[in-house]
Amino acid sequence: MSKTETKEFQTEIQQLLDIVINSLYTDKEIFLRELVSNASDAMEKLHFQLVSGHDIKDKDLPLEIKITTNLNEHMLTIADAGIGMTKEELTENLGTIAHSGSKAFVQNLAETGDNKDLNLIGQFGVGFYSAFMVAEKVTIYTRSYHPEAASYIWESDGKGSYTVEETEDLPRGTRIVLHLKKDQEDFAKPETVKRIIKQYSSFVPYPVSVDGENVNTVQALWTKNKNEITEEEYTEFYKFIANAYDEPLLRLHFSSDAPININTLLFVPKNNIEKLGFGRMEPSVNLYCKKVLIQAQAKDILPEWLRFVQGVVDSEELPLNISRETMQDSALVAKLNKVVTSRLLKYLGDQAKNEPEKYKEFWKEFGIFLKEGAANDFAHRDEIMKLLRFESSQTEGENLLSLSEYVERMKEEQEAIYYVNGPSREVIEAGPYLEVFKDKGYEVIYTRDSIDDYVLMTVGEFEGKKLISADQADLNLTRDENKVDGQEGLEGDELESFNEWLKELLGTKVTEIRESKRLIDSPALILSPFGSHSMQRMMQMMNRDL
Ligand code: ADP
Ligand code: MG
């Protein structure tokens, strides 16, 4: 037909290709994500032309992405019915980089040789070239949507140059054929290709088939309007992303434009699997950019103690913004974290208020994570403390108390929030520690777990009130002497010799013996110089480990 033209790649592209071709980068499979995104983008552009009423070649061609494998020939083909490319567009789009951010990205790759940055190749507008990680030759058949355009074949082995040749009329769109490298034939196996599509491209807004079988059946619900989504759709989506068989316990779906454009859909599962002994959970929120997976199980989107939350965060602002930084320390990710975490905390607060029964269920399973957060996450501590729940001398049955409620109920002269640790309500109430509080009518929080005491002690105060353990040695509370019914206590020399006798008896088991001003019925009580008994136990445990 017509002659074949050979053209040189622009210097930066060749530089990039050299890196890509020789890279030892292990996640080579991302090339498929990039080619599928390109196909999807091309169809979105076509769709735009369609709805704006332009004249279009093959108007009725369905908008879908067809992937076919050929293991015998070591070939993988990705075909779309998108806008296609003219000859000029071919050389402009696949041969040159114009964007300065992309050039900087390539420069950075060349300088640092940092392989993991190749994951970002699509973010920098050079995703197409990732095909050369797995292909020794790439052939593109393309036909623009313009009715009078011609059809072309573009071909390259990524080594300096490419060819463009006109060919007989093709259907609208682009078909990319990868001639796989010898050691990359895995990508010509349908199972492999299906798995990769499901992992990265499940939410691409057009049907994707592999050898005729449709592989993306779930919609990207997070981009839809809340009132267009049914409960069943939410549940189906949750089961899909969380690999779950049941419904989620909680769900938060929100979008915002400021301070950052973001679409988020988060779930709290029904069960805390760490409690069931499955080991420590990994963060389970995935980071997307325009429905395409950028980072699975993104570590920095939520603080670590929220690792039980599952879901999707999608931000259109990811591209190019990241510039030379890696995803991990990007300011953008920090911004995302701030927005998502504070929304989630506010949501949990609202749940506690508006859906107390549900919150109770949540607390039972995931309260332990909130305690971890209160102790470790300084930035969100105040908000987390409001979400904690406790038993107390005034709660009944299953009902629990928040620290804010405690403060509201405090006696006028009461200065601090008091807590005491024990294995059960009965044991705590039978002990001597409560006497002075009962006498004064002060509520006391009952903690069951050493971690509760650890949290309350580490945090130290709530809304300006000190958090104090009731078995602390220097508790500044004294009984109302009128209530001690007429019995005379020991005084002066008598008291001193009694104390000496006790000290001799107990020896090194105690550090000090003191007259108590807080006991009413009980003869004696043991106090801790370490803040509380349970702190003391924890410290002993830690020492044993050393
Ligand atoms: P990006 O997609 O970020 O622009 P790529 O390197 O992935 O960067 O692709 C470069 C360009 O090549 C695209 O912007 C597009 O113009 C063109 N292109 C790639 N794949 C296709 C396709 N399947 N159909 C039409 N144009 C495409
Ligand atoms: Mg792309």
UniProtKB/TrEMBL annotation:
It holds the Pfam family HATPase_c_3. It is found in: Cytoplasm. PROSITE patterns: HSP90 (PS00298). One of its GO terms (molecular function) is ATP hydrolysis activity. The keyword Nucleotide-binding applies. Keywords: ATP-binding, Chaperone, Cytoplasm, Nucleotide-binding, Stress response. InterPro entries: HATPase_C_sf (IPR036890), Heat_shock_protein_90_CS (IPR019805), HSP90_C (IPR037196), Hsp90_fam (IPR001404), Hsp90_N (IPR020575), Ribosomal_Su5_D2-typ_SF (IPR020568). It comes from the Bacteria. Its main location: cytoplasm. Residues 1-324 are annotated as: A. ATP binds at residues 34, 38, 80, 85, 93, 100-101, 123-128, 174, 324. The keyword Chaperone applies. SUPFAM superfamilies: ATPase domain of HSP90 chaperone/DNA topoisomerase II/histidine kinase (SSF55874), HSP90 C-terminal domain (SSF110942), Ribosomal protein S5 domain 2-like (SSF54211). GO terms for cellular component: cytoplasm. PANTHER family: HEAT SHOCK PROTEIN 90 FAMILY MEMBER. Belongs to the heat shock protein 90 family. Homodimer. Molecular chaperone. Has ATPase activity. This is Chaperone protein HtpG.
